[in-house]
Amino acid sequence: MTRDDTNDYAALFLNDTPLLDVRAPVEFARGAFPHATNLPLIDDQERHLIGLRYKQQGQQAAIDLGNELVRGEVKERRLRAWHDWWRAHPNGYLYCFRGGLRSRTTQDWLRQAGIDAPLVTRGYKALRRFLLEHLEQHVLQGPLWVLTGRTGCGKTRVLHQLHRAVDLEGLAHHRGSAFGRRPGGQPAQIDFENALAIRLLKLGDQAPVLVEDEGRLIGRCALPLCLNQRLRSMPRIDIEEPLESRVDVILEDYVLTPLREFLDGHDEEQAHGLFAEHLLGALDRIRKRLGGARHQTLREIMIRALEQQRRGDGGDEHRHWIRALLSDYYDPMYDYMLRHRQGPVYFRGNRDHVIATLQEWEREEQARPEGRSR
């Protein structure tokens, strides 16, 4: 049975529908969607040459050049890749940038080969516009709660215990702060925005969504301006944890876990070297804010801790610089930030209390008649 082309963009994202992106690799790298696979009709060099021909001689000359470049074994190789993709994803759809010549050419070639290949009408551009419009609408009109608390109080741990929560740092693949870089780097800005919009779309807007309080940037991923502005005035849920509890969290999240990540991809000696470079580099990036003397003291403590850890003596020595950095650097920054937040405090408590309270709220919300919320 032949399936129709679709413009039901919401259904594509809600159902995690597989998408075949036939744009050039350079376009895909700038931004795509979580369930899209890039198998281009024309590669980057071919796209460049066709674009030049289009500017010089017009559309038909560009089409003729495209047919000349993508023929014979090149065409057969791309057809085989598409064919394999469709066999693995029979419910998929394909698209190009605007739903025009490239996607329709791909569709025609596949149908000539006996493969039903429906299109996403108006292509990537329409999908992207849909997500941006939904993101702004949800942020500006949907209910949001903001999770606040000092560095190390375990906000991400709370988010991961709840369904109606968005882990912005997880979407940005960055733990936040100067120490937050993770192996593998961060997604492109467009990919980050797309993933955020899809997460909000799936959660819906009938009940509040919990997000962590963040600054404008998470690493190099920027929060959408509408979200960054609204975080300042939304109701807050504040986590309060003692200093030593926060030291435990930072030790696990910024020392032990990152080292394990480095060990996953490198031999032990190389992993320890890369981790030391990562940690010292993070401290060096905030040298001016710390001041020269304090930075030097913390750096010496950190080097001793790294040497101890390399010898296999555990990571407890790291607690010294973590404790000093929290109390003397991050806590004053948090106090300053909090003075610029206008939202009321919905409630506050330690991490376990916040998790229990929010989980109970989620159970109550699930039991409510559809369309009703507090």
- Rounded mean pLDDT is 90
Number of helices: 17
Globally, the shape reads: globular
Number of strand elements: 10
As a percent range, the share of strand residues is 5-15%
Largest sheet: 5 strands, parallel
Which stretches of 5+ consecutive residues score pLDDT under 50? none
Q: Record the strand order, biggest sheet.
A: 5-6-4-9-10
Q: Any overview of this molecule?
A:
It is a single chain. The protein starts with 8 loop residues before the first helix and ends in a 7-residue tail after the last helix. The chain folds into three domains: 9-129, Rhodanese-like domain (Oxidized Rhodanese, domain 1, 3-Layer(aba) Sandwich); 142-241 and 344-367, no CATH class; 244-332, no CATH class. Strands 5-6-4-9-10 form a five-stranded parallel sheet. It has 17 helices and ten strands. 31% of the residues are buried. The chain has helices at residues 9-14, 25-30, 44-57, 59-69, 72-88, 101-112, 123-141, 155-159, 168-172, 189-203, 225-230, 243-265, 268-285, 287-290, 292-310, 318-338, 351-367; strands at residues 19-21, 36-38, 93-95, 144-149, 165-166, 209-212, 217-218, 221-222, 236-239, 345-349.
